[in-house]
Amino acid sequence: MDIMNKSTISEFVLLGLPGSWELQIFYFMLFSMLYGATVVGNLLIAVTVTFSSHLNSPMYFLLGNLSFFDLCLSTITTPKMFADLLREQRTISLWRCMTQMFFMHLFGGSEMTLLIAMAFDRYVSVCKPLHYTSIMSHYLLHGFVLFSWTIGFTHSMRQMILTINLTFCGTNVIDNLFYDLPLVIKLACKGTYILELFVIADSGLLSLICFILLLVSYTVILVTAHNHSSGGLSKALSILSAHITVVTLFFGPYIFIYAWSFSNFSGTKILSVFYTVITPLLNPIMYTLRNQEMKVAMRKLRTQHVIPR
């Protein structure tokens, strides 16, 4: 259905971050550096996992895909967000807004599912080490990735099919840093109470359930490791610490954003910055700086392909 024919609004306006022109320049420089670090860090992980013969385990295969999702998720929103800081007219067309929201939920939902797959990989590694190779086969790994894409696409399409039929004829101003589904729905002409509940259930509740499942799986891993040997708990903690940190910092802002998405929660902008700018940078920081094998593989690739002989 052609929403442009139904709506009197053809574009949306963002208010962005408040402050003077000097403060906007500071935000621009800060976000640009963070986004640059995100791109470089995640690309390094993806390239290293792809071309290093030493990183051929299932964990690194999933880690490479996680880097790709983080890179895409950050690229959907961050470049326009910090570019808008230097503009007086922070607008986006209705169709570009819908496209941005579709890809945000596509990559966000896919990453949630992939994090569950990574938790399963760690469970098998710690609790069933003798059967790790046979369980974590190439077929299962590619099935995990395909399932992640399927969940992300289904999650995004469910919401966009309902949103694309809305009529927008009132205000077109959004008090945030980027365009997200709950904020756009609030601008529709007719009552959207049922759709708001659906978005909260589909995004907020889904992320909360995934987060709880991940915490339960990590608890099972730690308990099982502790029961197997006296040093098993410390070994499991060293393996899972990065996973637990990334999962907590990824799901935390997401849950809060959608739990208060249709209210006047004052911390929405702060959480939005954290979710779109900071969270995608956690992957290279937590998994690269804390992983000795990844550091060695990066040095070998640099020696072989970058440093001239």
How would you characterize this protein structure?
The chain has 309 residues and is mainly alpha-helical. It has a single domain (3-305), classed as Rhodopsin 7-helix transmembrane proteins (Rhopdopsin 7-helix transmembrane proteins, Up-down Bundle), CATH 1.20.1070.10. Helices cover 74% and strands 3% of the residues. The protein has a 3-stranded mixed beta sheet. Helix 8 packs antiparallel against helix 9 (232-259). It starts with a helix and ends with a helix. Mean pLDDT is 79; it is low at 1-5.
In short:
With 309 residues, the protein is mostly helical. The chain contains eleven helices and three strands. It has helices spanning 3-6, 21-51, 58-84, 94-127, 132-135, 138-163, 181-185, 193-228, 232-259, 268-288, 292-305, and strands at residues 11-14, 91-93, 173-174.
Features:
mainly alpha, 309 residues, Rhopdopsin 7-helix transmembrane proteins, globular, disordered N terminus
